[in-house]
Structures
1.
Amino acid sequence: MSIVPFLQYWLVYHPTILNFSWNPPHTPASSPLFLSLSIFTYLSLTLLLSLLPLPPFPPRLLKPITALHNLLLLLLSLTMSLGCTLTILTHTPQFRFTICFPPGTKPNGPLFFWAYIFYLSKLLEFLDTLLIILSRSIRRLTFLHVYHHSTVLLMCYLWLRTSQSLFPIALLTNSSVHVIMYGYYFLTAVGSRPKWKRAVTDCQIVQFLFSFAVSGVMLYYHFSDDAGCSGMSGWCFNALFNASLFALFLDFHLKSYNANNNTKKRSVD
């Protein structure tokens, strides 16, 4: 069997994917109560565990768990990226549809299936924080880390809840960047620290800039068409969240790499 038809069937045309429907509260993890409890539990446990004087988790146990976790998220991100790409190429009536859903679009079908998997993957990413706490690397437990992990879950929920326009592009770019990011984390966990750590942050910043540019295209479609685009309330939240993340990532980037450059200069002097 050719690889392309094989991937198309399992990532687009499988009945579970093709017939997917987001239907709260019947769809697992789709109720507002579940969302609220998930975010509250994450924030509460993060605060509690970071304050408790926990002994360091044995590295010989923590490193394999961390490597496995990162490998799982790497493979999941790659699968979501491929699934979303194939869906856009084979199952959308026109490219404009990936940027601007018509009003009244129902959250059904392959694109929304991958949005649902992406939403669930954010719950799995909560384990990133637990692994940081168990390693006692509290300096890595930044406001940016906790804010991103807790708020991105709400953003993904709104993708589905509001049938938000533009999410296919966001899903594709974000999952692709996560392939690079979790690839780096996996290699680091198995003892091979790549030299392209800075590229991970650079890719995230480029992703934000790209999302702002594509948002301009979506707004053009929205205001130039009498019907407009679906899910604009969700997009407004998404835009504000991305703007805040971009500012925090940029601040992190400048502080981290300026500090590294200053350290190198002092060592040379």
2.
Amino acid sequence: MEANSTDTSSLSARGNTMDINLKALARNNNGTASAVFLTVSGMESLLGASFLQTENHTEMLSDVITATLPKINHTQLSEPVNFTMSHKRRLAEPGLMTCTVSEDNPFLEWVNRMCVIVGLVFFALAILTFLLCSWNPKINNTARLHLCLCLFPLVCSIMAGLLHFLVVASFLWMLLERSALPAGPETL
């Protein structure tokens, strides 16, 4: 990482760069900020012309890049982030060069939903099997059951919310009981 005179930090990987002002980001995030910049090479074999489904001859000329800002509270950036990508090779003939933008595909969204539903059904069946069936008394299914519960989507969030509610409710009831007791020596 290099810092220049404009407080912009430059992260680079395989000839691609990301310029970001980490100091401005830290001012909006309790004094700390970090950035991760990755380059994924070799994706042209997977993301060829058949995947991109274009009428023209299409090929990838640069690597796939990704960036993330871990543990950032505010998602609004005070200054823009600049990405510079380098091409792997030059074109022999001029042509139309565009950046790919993924479009929403309703069929893929439907397939994704169906796969999630089927997966949830099988996870529920596995959980019921581990709860209700014991094939061998020497084998304990508790670890398998907990693994399935952890992998089951939203269970962790629901359990955390439920535990939070129960703890707060128990403290509230203790407070109400304490305040309902009469004060003084006349109590038993």
3.
Amino acid sequence: MTCCDQKCALIAGAVVGALVAVLGGILIPVGNMVIENTVNKETVLENGTLAFDTWTSADVVVYRQFWLFDVQNPDEVVSQGAKPVLVQKGPYTYKTRFIPKTNITFNGNFTASFVLPAGAIFEPSMSVGREEDVVTSLNLAVAGVYSLLDHNLANWFIQQSNSTLFQNRTVKDLLWGYKDPMLKSMIGVFYPYNGTSDGPYTVFTGKDDIKKVATIERWQGEASLSYWKDPYCDMINGTDGSSFHPFLNKKEPLFFFSPDICRSISAEYDSTVDLKGIDVYRYMLPAKALASPVDNPDNQCFCTDPSLTKNCTVAGLLDLTACKGSPVFLSLPHFLFGSSDLVEAVVGLSPNFDEHSIFLDVEPITGFTLRFAKRLQLNMLYGPSDSIVILNNIKENTIFPLLWVNETASLDDETAEMFKKELISQIELLEGIQIGLLVAGSIIFAGCMIGLIVVCTKKSKNGLIK
């Protein structure tokens, strides 16, 4: 091959390499556009999309695990005003959310409505005992009349029924309901539950704006709540937590609304973790979410009774009386992020961030929540009273923890493999082609240019020798 032929071949090779590299570079924005369009199409809530199939099914098993606080010294509390000594018993596990959404109705293209049925099935294999296990807990009816009625009237009801401050109840009765001798009606921490439903919800489909997909427009026909008597606290903001818009930004918090806590709340990006080979963003509920108004002024409107929260300075507590119709206080388990007074009022609590915090693991491309743990504690109040005889020796108000619940779900191995095959592997293949073309073209171009320089150098030397 002559020198001219070598130069022509190397120049041609350099041109081809450059073209291949340029093609790889061009495919990056084009490929990203293809990925974005595909994901946006599949995350809209309409018949035939991946999001709709996931949204309407009940294939992902949701469990509720309950830990109940068993009082070890009930007599000493009543007779001497001693601190309650508590032992945590659990988990008692129930399968929930196994009934698909009902009454799904599309209101044109942009919103859809549905009702979410409720049910609970006991899972003995995931529980420490039977539903018939007995625990000693605060008497729900006594705590209720203490907070809601005139104390003279409350004392009359208590004495007429021979009710006590603490009662022995089975796990099943305490959770799902029993007929109370004082109120002459059914009562329970979650009564009624089975056979009830949540909603109706109306959510945006994302058809007109993918950023709004699954965002709640209305709950029970209303665009806002009425519990808190404040526009900010009464906002219904975000989704139900099961999914969010695609292509998440770590800097932006995720907002979701939960009827269990009677408010909207937000979670913040914490870290990226591996879930069955899928990278997910872990969002955590920050301490400021239930901070006192002193530390988080946004929570001022959630403080509805300053006399119970030391003039709104108590952290980690949410009074749900206006919402639930009974004096129930919400917190994180073991009063995590709560004021020290709450923890020290009883014996036996030990807040632990890893065990008691709330998190959501969300796949950032699709916005699907693939794993979550919603951990909440329900509490009631009792305190001293000159008029209520069984409370004569009580020394101070006590926010008593009844139980805490961990509602959790995670995608199974089969779904994880499908998700990786249908989405992750396709994206990785396209990215591999893009990078491969860019790298290969760059190498070919660089190699040919180096060869051309060598050929030209040799030619110059030969010319000088002649």
4.
Amino acid sequence: MADGDTYCYVKSSGACYPKGGAREIPYHIIRVIENGGKVLVKAPVSQILVNNNGAAYGVTVQRGSEQINIKAPVVISSVGVFTTFQELLPYEIQVKSEVKERLSPFKIGKISFQVFAGFNAAQEELGITSTNTLLFKSNDLDDLLEEYFSLNKDKAPVNVPMMFVSFPSAKDPTSKDRFPGKSCMEIHTIVRYEWFAQWKELPVETLADHENYKMRFANYLFDWACSYFPKLRAKLAVLHAVSLVNMHGLGAKDGSMMSAEHNLERYHPLNMAKSRCSIPVKNLYLSGQDVFSAGYSGVLHGGLICASTVLGHVVYIDLFLLA
């Protein structure tokens, strides 16, 4: 970073964090699902099955080289409106005017670029806490991001204008027992899909040019983090970055972890009213971030709204009574 750079520094008290780490979330959810249901891994969905009457009746999953149809009276998709409507539904459904209209308020969001760092030192040695830190190069975010996204791919890695820094090991009270003398850090920022598009169909983990490019971002972000947490550098053990993992691992359209962009148009009252769980395909429902809002809380509420829609019953009342 150039001398004389100025930054806005924001600290937050942090969000809730699962005791035992993020793995505890699927661990507990899977036990509930498998009480009568089944959880499949390494079985990506390739299409949603729709009959001649325009009703969904299951999905096709990939198992090795084999395509397997799984039938169901109700299909719920949480992979976002773009992947659901533009990739999983049959083409003749995709081109229907009512389906296109449902997509009209949405734009694809930017890619979330993530850096993961590990340290051979405990929390106290590094001077870190559970507090989330957000760094901005100015307080005019609109101009900041407009200028950043106008850059070419060569200049972008050393001109990142904002990032989020978090220390999961400091948030999790079990981390000290599970990984004594170790700490970890996450850095999040956003990038343009076009900067990484050349690698979208390739095994990116094996490509030196992709590795070199993404590490330009990672090193810049880590250096920036060290300006606020100076004890990190001497104890760094591993620095790893991911870019297109949201597209390859989550099935996110163009790698957008937040799915649809969270702009003013999306949150216009009329467009919000159109963002329903039920869609113009019978027996098919949407859950996740594109139903309610972004992030973990958005997904939770998206699931509750979807469950209420499918069951014809307001499950929020059930939760209130359980509490």
